[in-house]
């Protein structure tokens, strides 16, 4: 059975996520993406106008997948309960190193592109990140708590990207910080 163009696009985006996670925007060739999908390079460009469009679609997919994980985990919850459920779900999600590395590559690629005078990738990435934050804020119901949640997520990304094993003391310090913040909020209420 042949795939529809939309199904093929989705397979390109998933493959691109893997390749960009490993090589970044500049270090990933469209040839590698085409090879991973099992299509020709010219066919890729029938689905997407250029490499940047493929990267932007992969970045959007990465952010949307992160939200889907949060949404499923925290459905019907708010406040600390939503935050805890999404945090637990994120710890499970980051076991997929390609998901974390794609997030990190998005940030690095935006920085590199904008340093070279190209702001297009940054606009797309910022829109996706802002949309993710807004959804998290809406779910939690508190802007400060949503900001703390995102800050913890970035720390998790850094620990994972740097290869710290979960047994390392930095992880336990991270867990202790979260517990202290929860206790402080409980004392305020």
UniProtKB/TrEMBL annotation:
Alphabetical list of PANTHER family matching this protein: HTH-TYPE TRANSCRIPTIONAL DUAL REGULATOR CECR, HTH-TYPE TRANSCRIPTIONAL REGULATOR RUTR
The keyword DNA-binding appears for this protein: yes
Chain ranges passing through the membrane: none
InterPro entries with a match to the protein in the record: Homeodomain-like_sf, HTH-type_TetR-like_transc_reg, HTH_TetR
Domain HTH tetR-type: from-to ranges: 6-66
Protein name according to UniProt: TetR family transcriptional regulator
Annotation: DNA-binding region: 29-48
GO molecular function (one): DNA-binding transcription factor activity
Keywords: DNA-binding
